[in-house]
Every structure is written in structure tokens, then in C-alpha cells.
Amino acid sequence: MSGPDLIFVPDRLETSFQLQTALFVSLAVLIFVVLTGIFFLFVHRQNKEIGDINNYLSRLEAGENTLDIRDNTEGELSILKNELYKMTTMLKEQTENLKQDKIHLADSLADISHQLKTPLTSLIVIRDLLADQPSEEVKAEFLERMKAQLKRMEWLTTSLLKLSRLETGTVTLKKEKFHVQALIDRAVQSLSIPVDIKQHRIRIAGDESVMLTGDIDWMAEALINILKNHIEHTPEQGIIRIEYEDNPIFTKITTADNGQGIHQKDLPYIFNRFYRGKNASEESVGIGLAMAYEIVKQQGGDITVKSESGEGTEFTLTFYKQHI
């Protein structure tokens, strides 16, 4: 009985070994197939993403700049896509800014040409009249007119240069403490002649200890231009008020007059360069308030205006202790 049992043991071992070998080979083949499939899927995906990037760049080159290639998945190519999108967005913004700068430059040149055309025309006319050899009295009058036009051109070009420097950020504004009263005194003193000519009364109210941080020279330029507007629109013997106050949140300067006021439809545009409202004088070129606005804004302040026709105009300059 034991003999036959010993004869079949090697066959069983061989069969078991063959089964194990077949299983191992099958498993190895399966793993190889799976890995090969994964590899090809990975390669296909990489090729697709590379194709997407290539297509994205081609369409950008063709002028399409509104495409979105951002990818929220993981991987180096996804990171590359996101970085490409960031770069494209940045370049798009820079291109748009350059376009706006170009438009602004063209508009500025057109405005400057228009503003210089009037005094230049006047000078040409006066020159032609002087060529006729008028009397000494008439000649003296023409020369005074020429001086006035040349002075206007000088003021215009100087103001435009200042405004352009402010708008392009080439001006370095100082940050120094100064008394608001000293600022007001400087502005009022520079306008003493037109104030005396129109017999305006200027009333100033405020705590002389109040201080402000900024560039007093440029701030005086802003206040002078605002006061010029009051002088221009206030009749003789009118009143111009300048008040200032200080609290833990802001420092405020208010200027007001009892003049003819500004037309309501003009109010939204009075700080625009070269804007001349309905009540503007013939000498006005519409640049003073634009400069005042830019100066105040660049020193962290706000400037607002309210006016009623026939009742006067009020400007408010607010400088916050902490820029909001």
C-alpha cells in the first residue's frame, strides 16, 4: 500500500510547481500589461497637455489673449500651465496699460495744441498789426497784449509739465510735518494781488496748532489753484472762507465762496484736464483743478466739491491719518 503512494508524490510536486510558475508568469504579464498601459496613458496625457500648451501659445501668437489654460491638477505641466497663464495675464495688463498711455499721450498732445493755438493766433495778429507801424500809444497797448499772451503760454506749459510729472509718478513728494496755517498763509500771500484787485475778503478759521504731513510746496500749489477758482467765480467784494479742523481720523481743509457757483452738470467733470464749465472765464484753460486733484490724491487725500448756482462753491480736502 505504501509503494503506490510514494510513486505519485513527485508528480504532485511537479504539478504544483508548474501551477505556481504559470501563476507567476501570468501575474508578471498582467503587471507588465498594467504598467505598460499606465505608461502609455501617462505619455498620452503628457502629450495632450503639451499639445494644449502648444495650441495655447499658437493662439496667443495669433492675437487671442482671452484664453484660460489654468489647471488645478497636480504635476509639473499643470504648474507650467498656471505660470503661463499668469505671465499671459501680466503681459495683457501691460499691453493694455501701454495702449491707455498711448491714448492719453495722443489726447494730451491734442489738448496742448488746442490750448496753445489761441495765444499763438493772438500773437500772430498782434505782430501783423505792429507791422503797420501804429502810433506809440497803440504800439504800447499791443505790446502789453503780447506780454499777457506770452505769460499765459508760459503758465500753461509750466502747469502741463507739472501735471505730467505728477501723473507719470516722476515727482518725489516729501513727507514732512507742517502747520496747516503756514500752508494757508503761503497760498493766500501768493494770490494777494488778484484778491486786492477784486477786493475780496478772506476769512480764515482753525486751530493754529493743527499739523499735516506731506509736501507743503506741492500742497500749496493745490490750494492756490483751488483759491484761484474761488477768486475767478466770486464777484468783487465777495467773501472767501478757509476753515480747517483736525480729529483722530483725519485733517480737513474747507474752502468756500459766495460767488456764482458751478453748474450742476459741470460738477462731475471739473477735475478733468482742460474741462471748462459753463461759467468758466475766457482766460480759464481748465488745468488748475486737475492739478489740485492729482496733488491731493498723491498725498493720500480726497477732494470733493459741492456747489449751487448763484450760492457759491465749497471744496473739501480730507487727509486721513491712516490711508484707507
Automatic annotation (TrEMBL):
Q: Tell me, what's a Pfam family for it?
A: HisKA
Q: What is its EC number?
A: 2.7.13.3
Q: Name one GO cellular component term.
A: plasma membrane
The record, for SUPFAM superfamilies, names:
ATPase domain of HSP90 chaperone/DNA topoisomerase II/histidine kinase, Homodimeric domain of signal transducing histidine kinase
Enzyme class, first EC level, given as a word: transferase
Q: What is its main location?
A: membrane
The record's CDD domains line, in alphabetical order, gives: HATPase, HisKA
GO BP field: cellular response to phosphate starvation
Q: Where are the transmembrane segments?
A: 20-43
Which UniProt keywords are listed?
Answer: ATP-binding, Kinase, Membrane, Nucleotide-binding, Phosphoprotein, Transferase, Transmembrane, Transmembrane helix, Two-component regulatory system
Q: Subcellular location, in the record's words?
A: Membrane
- Which InterPro entries does the entry link to? BphY/WalK/GraS-like, HATPase_C_sf, HATPase_dom, His_kinase_dom, HisK_dim/P_dom, HisK_dim/P_sf, Sig_transdc_His_kin-like_C
Quote one Gene Ontology molecular function term: phosphoprotein phosphatase activity
Positions the record marks as coiled coil are: none
Protein name per UniProt:
histidine kinase
Q: Which organism is it from?
A: Novibacillus thermophilus
